[in-house]
Specification:
Layout: E1 11-14, H1 20-32, E2 34-40, H2 46-57, E3 61-64, E4 68-74, E5 86-87, H3 92-102, E6 108-112, H4 123-131, E7 135-137, E8 147-150, E9 159-161, H5 167-177, E10 183-187, H6 195-202, E11 208-210, E12 213-217, E13 226-228, H7 233-245, E14 250-257, H8 264-271, E15 275-280, E16 287-293, E17 297-298, E18 301-302, H9 314-322, E19 324-330, H10 343-353, E20 357-361, E21 364-369, E22 376-379, H11 384-394, E23 402-405, H12 417-424
Parallel strand pairs: 1-14, 2-13, 5-6, 9-10, 17-19, 18-19, 22-23
Antiparallel strand pairs: 2-4, 3-4, 6-8, 7-8, 10-12, 11-12, 14-16, 15-16, 19-21, 20-21
Helix pairs in contact: 1-2, 1-6, 3-5, 4-5, 7-9, 7-11
The structure holds ligand SPQ.
């Protein structure tokens, strides 16, 4: 696909689609609750559609009138053995969180997905679940999907010190713990996104969180709720960076989720001298309006506890760093190697093709700025975030064209990305991308 290039100004206001992490979890909690859950502004990206289909396969009735998604909850006990394997497509969140939900169901399920899912590590979830009594394994005894998982109605409680900072692993253990007798304790390596903990409370359950220690008891009952999904800061990130690096720009993003476990990118933008203002919505302290404008950026160092709070934004932050004066260093981000693709290698390789000065390291990237970008042919490696990052990079290319291979991957988290971007670029009909 031919990308939009050579933009001299970006202007406008946009509401990005619903948060992917919260959309997945709202379907999951809707299903395991009793009663009806209505979900507004849900993300209808491919990943969340996979989660919806997974629960339909398990016998949950889910309606979508195009506005509101209604989940007729069955409780954990009402989930039924599937006839066919559950196909999670490209979605790591779906497969890992489903493992926790299935941990307490006394039947066997096969979980499979696309080529990328077949390479993502699952031992991080299987090891704690096996300690709880679940029988699970990957292909030929490996840790890789397709996975077979046989849950038990006698789940054991555990105290689990997490070896990786991962909200997916934490959430899988939490879903299993909710079906065990007694109290499970999880100690996080670093604090990660806490949407599962928040939803346990929102759906009427109890959970204790004391810094990195989380305690949750089993056999809790959940009641259906009304959920309004805030915009995804991980999707907003592409427009935040576009507004900072394209000349003569000002972009406003409304109703963006501002959960502190997700807002690391805002701290980075401020550290880099980015012009950014945030107005929290009166009705919700965890959403707000963000405005950015073209900025004279300086390099920064990113590592330590902030990493889980911006892990999915690191590809687009790397692009931001190519337009900052000085050397930016990203460290402690080895988790990037096990996302939809190896994001350390993909970012370094593809941005270098466009003229960036960027070196991959064992746990991050070294980016020297400021560089002028040029045209070329690049690939998303089937990774939505790499694809969107490359389109934002292309906006800066004055001479030549940029061709993106595997652009369709973007629909995983942002089906209308190109349409929204065309609006901000103020492209007229006929001047459209593609
Ligand atoms: O669902 P998936 O494919 O794992 O999605 C990604 C993404 O970029 O959209 C990661 F590739 O986001 C994860 C995120 O990296 C979503 C997530 C969640 O909703 O709990 C947590 C993070 O993953 P992890 O492995 O750190 O727990």
């Amino acid at each position: 696909m031919r990308l939009i290039t050579n933009q001299k100004t970006l202007k406008g206001t946009l509401e990005v689609p619903g948060d992917k992490s919260i959309s997945h979890r709202s379907i999951m909690f809707g299903a395991i609750a009793k009663g009806t859950t209505t979900i507004h502004k849900i993300l209808r990206g491919d990943d969340c559609l996979s989660t919806m289909q997974a629960f339909r396969d398990l016998g949950v009735v889910i309606e979508d009138d195009g506005e509101v998604v209604t989940v007729h909850g069955t409780g954990f006990d009402g989930l039924k053995k599937t006839v066919e394997p559950i196909n999670v497509g490209n979605s790591g969140t779906t497969i890992r969180l489903m493992m926790g939900i299935l941990a307490g169901r006394p039947f066997e399920t096969t979980l499979l997905g696309d080529d990328s899912i077949a390479k993502r590590p699952m031992n991080r979830v299987m090891l704690p679940l096996r300690q709880m009594g679940v029988v699970c394994s990957g292909t030929d005894g490996s840790q890789f999907p397709p996975l077979r998982i046989k849950g038990t109605s006698n789940l054991k409680v555990i105290e689990y010190k997490m070896p990786v900072a991962s909200a997916q692993v934490k959430s899988a253990i939490l879903f299993a713990a909710l079906q065990a007798d007694g109290t499970t304790t999880i100690i996080e390596k670093e604090r990660t996104r806490d949407h599962t903990e928040e939803m346990i409370q929102q759906f009427g359950g109890n959970i204790q969180v004391d810094d990195r220690t989380i305690r949750v008891s089993g056999n809790q009952n959940f009641i259906g709720q009304e959920v309004i999904v805030p915009g995804d800061i991980s999707s907003a990130a592409f427009f935040l960076v576009a507004g900072l690096i394209v000349p003569n720009s000002e972009i406003t993003l409304t109703h963006v989720g501002l959960n502190p476990t997700r807002t690391g990118i805002i701290e980075v933008i401020l550290n880099m001298n980015g012009q950014i203002t945030i107005a929290k919505s009166a009705d919700s302290s965890k959403a707000g309006t963000i405005t950015v404008s073209t900025s004279h950026l300086k390099a920064t160092e990113i590592g330590g506890e902030i990493i889980p709070r911006l892990i999915d934004e690191l590809p687009i932050i790397a692009l931001l760093a190519t337009q900052a004066e000085g050397t930016t260093i990203i460290r402690d981000a080895e988790e990037l190697k096990v996302k939809e693709t190896n994001r350390i290698d993909a970012v370094a390789k593809e941005l270098s093709k466009l003229g960036a000065d960027i070196t991959p390291t064992e746990d991050g990237l070294i980016i020297r700025g400021k560089t002028k970008l040029h045209g070329g042919t690049v690939t998303s490696y089937g990774d939505h975030r790499i694809g969107m990052m490359l389109q934002i990079a292309a906006l800066l290319v004055e001479d030549g064209t940029v061709e993106l291979e595997n652009a369709e991957a973007i629909s995983v988290s942002y089906p209308n990305f190109f349409k929204d971007l065309a609006g901000i670029c103020q492209l007229k009909k006929g001047e459209i991308y593609g």
